[in-house]
């Protein structure tokens, strides 16, 4: 399998191999990507595999065609990724993940500039019992980060960037208590991201779209979801989780999906249990849905099609 490590803080994924093409997703530093063979392979790189294939592909095309852990397939600049195989520490070791919205390193020497990492960035190392943890960033810097801002990451090679429960196929595979805890944790992460700007295709603290916010926050809790809101809703429906909207809009934690119909979902947000919803629209903010919805809440309520709650 051809694999690549994302070695920048955040990198756009394009629909086509051009800077002018639509950004359909982002990948965060430390993610492991699966390289998809290009539709037309240069004769100079045919027959190559692994790191040799990726390096040659970068030379000839400057773009790689890759599948992200959430299933998105698109194009990234080749020099923003590093070829790896299953024996690489980035594939064999879980490492750590940034849990805070932004986390700055602690300079070791006078005049040293801090390194700032965003939520979801994965580094090599472990969470220390001391105040600081020594880690290696995806781009090769060795820094010390506040331990309180880190959490253990899932093993990326086996389950993608986001861990544990990504292969759930049936409602019975996840108890109601476990689903409640997962959604509650994701809701708390979304609170840390309030006022983050809106960005089409965004999935980092630098900017989110609605499904990107859900993708990151739920993913940080160990459940890997599809990228887009419609596919996320379908994922829950197919496994028997959730129901048509009713009084459960007051339940927390939860996810609410919106659209012209159940098969035309185009928006998603986190229900907070106090009659509100945290979502990315304009920016990441809270909209009041119950008992007296604000203007935005009234527009959303008539389009609510599916609710997933613990």
Automatic annotation (TrEMBL):
Residues 180-308 form the NlpC/P60 domain. SUPFAM superfamilies: Cysteine proteinases. It holds the Pfam family NLPC_P60. It comes from the Bacteria. The keyword Protease applies. Gene3D superfamilies: endopeptidase domain like (from Nostoc punctiforme). GO terms for biological process: proteolysis. GO terms for molecular function: cysteine-type peptidase activity. InterPro entries: NLP_P60_dom (IPR000064), Papain-like_cys_pep_sf (IPR038765), Peptidase_C40 (IPR051202). Keywords: Hydrolase, Protease, Thiol protease. Belongs to the peptidase C40 family. PANTHER family: MUREIN DD-ENDOPEPTIDASE MEPH-RELATED (PTHR47053:SF1). This is C40 family peptidase. The lineage of its organism: Bacteria, Candidatus Eiseniibacteriota.
């Amino acid at each position: 399998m051809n694999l690549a490590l994302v070695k920048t803080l955040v990198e756009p994924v394009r629909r086509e191999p051009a800077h002018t093409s639509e950004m359909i997703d982002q990948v965060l530093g430390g993610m492991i990507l699966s390289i998809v063979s290009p539709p037309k392979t240069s004769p100079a790189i045919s027959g190559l595999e692994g790191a040799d294939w990726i390096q040659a592909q970068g030379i000839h095309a400057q773009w790689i065609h890759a599948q992200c852990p959430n299933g998105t397939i698109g194009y990234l600049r080749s020099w923003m990724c590093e070829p790896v195989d299953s024996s690489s520490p980035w594939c064999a070791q879980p490492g750590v993940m940034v849990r805070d919205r932004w986390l700055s390193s602690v300079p070791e020497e006078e005049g040293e500039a801090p390194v700032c990492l965003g939520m979801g960035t994965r580094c090599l190392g472990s969470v220390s019992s001391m105040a600081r943890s020594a880690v290696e960033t995806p781009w090769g810097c060795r820094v010390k980060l506040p331990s309180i801002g880190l959490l253990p990451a899932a093993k990326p090679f086996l389950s993608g960037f986001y861990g544990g429960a990504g292969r759930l196929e049936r409602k019975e595979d996840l108890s109601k208590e476990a689903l409640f805890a997962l959604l509650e944790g994701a809701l708390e992460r979304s609170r840390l991201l309030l006022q983050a700007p809106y960005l089409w295709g965004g999935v980092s603290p630098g900017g989110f779209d609605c499904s990107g916010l859900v993708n990151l926050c739920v993913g940080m809790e160990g459940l890997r979801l599809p990228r887009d809101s419609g596919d996320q809703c379908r994922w829950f429906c197919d496994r028997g989780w959730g129901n048509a909207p009713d009084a459960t809009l007051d339940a927390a934690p939860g996810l609410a999906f919106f659209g012209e119909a159940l098969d035309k979902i185009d928006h998603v947000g986190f229900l907070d249990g106090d009659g509100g919803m945290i979502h990315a629209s304009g920016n990441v903010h809270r909209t009041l849905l119950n008992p007296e919805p604000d203007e935005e809440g009234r527009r959303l309520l008539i389009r609510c099609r599916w609710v997933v709650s613990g």
